[in-house]
Please model this.
Amino acid sequence: MKNYSVIIIGGGPAGATVGQYLKEKNIDCLIIEKRGSYRDKVCAGGIPLGIINLLPDNLKNFEKMEYDILSIDYGGKLSNRVKLNKPFLYGVERTKFDHHLRKGLNVHYNEKFIDFNNEKNNISVHTDKTTYTAKFLVGADGVGSRVSILSSLARKKRFILGEEKEVFQKNITEPNTVKLFLRYNYLGYGWMLPKQNHYSAGSGALQKYFLNSSKGTVEKFDKRKGTTKIYPISLWGGEESLTSGRIALAGEAGNLVDPFTAAGIYPAMLSAKLLTGVIGKALKNGKSNLQEYNKLVIDELGEEFNCALLLSKMFYPFLPLIKNVIVNRSTIQQAMENISSGYISYKTFYRKVQRTRKIPVKIAYFLVQKFAN
Ligand SMILES: Cc1cc2nc3c(=O)[nH]c(=O)nc-3n(C[C@H](O)[C@H](O)[C@H](O)COP(=O)(O)OP(=O)(O)OC[C@H]3O[C@@H](n4cnc5c(N)ncnc54)[C@H](O)[C@@H]3O)c2cc1C
Model:
């Protein structure tokens, strides 16, 4: 039976980042990935500029698009286009990006994690091929995480469903423009992100609204041919436990997904980086738990995500009421500038909303405070 210090389930952004930072610390680890080395992940691939700070030095150069224009279409009735003099968002092709993140790591592809057993001084990890032992097990196995189910961690699942189609085109027009589509579906949004040789067009909404009315939204604003794929996303639903004994969850396995935009790549990599620091210390001091990790995640993401959750409860249902305040040049520009500083600060927006004098926003804020918590 092969023994490792750390076994990581899943080779997405969370698992690969854990692997890279453990490698940097000379900690032996194995990634178990049930898919092949080029996994086709349904994703728009929009990532904030702050991702650079989360990447180890040898991985900072990666293939990406840079967007400096945001165009917003509100149900075909209202639109706005704002250009910044610097990029505010990157765009990646997930298959290539994830492959890049796994560079130089020990990954067993096409091997599926099945189960684990807690032993006295380690943990046995069973896959569909064999059994390993490790000091620590990291669940970075994404939405529907088997590690989270088996360990009863991160139980507050708040699912949305996203649909995405890739439209291949030789000449990409407006390669630096992100398009957002509001009011084409209920309690959700649509997007179009240009990539090297295709557009990623898609939309998402909370599960019950997606099934009732949002499925097929993408066809309303982009009728070009492409295969549409549907995939769930597990959003942050509030603070909860991400560790138990020798087990910890990183990324979407722990519902660490921005509840406003449903972006999960940045929080996946941030949580992964935080976790490796705690694992490093635990191995050095012979500790058998990773409790400190929970606090670090809450300190870094908790308040931001709680504000994002409240803002999402105001923004999506009350959009018809507040649209004139939101879909205007000055608010869009402020949002883009905020995002371009690295990662969107929801705390800043939330404070602005609390102090606003705009009557529609005051009404929405009051109703959310009274009824949505
Ligand atoms: C339509 C759509 C659009 C999106 N757009 C964006 C976006 O623009 N920006 C953004 O930041 N986020 C976006 N997301 C969310 C983002 O894709 C995820 O949150 C992100 O991939 C989470 O990273 P992760 O490493 O935690 O999990 P994942 O990337 O899901 O990786 C988990 C890995 O674990 C493997 N795995 C699972 N179970 C097992 C098992 N039993 N054994 C072995 N391996 C296993 C999987 O094969 C997978 O490779 C989007 C999601 C969807 C569905």
Summary: The radius of gyration is 21 Å. Residues 126 and 164 are 34 Å apart (CA to CA).
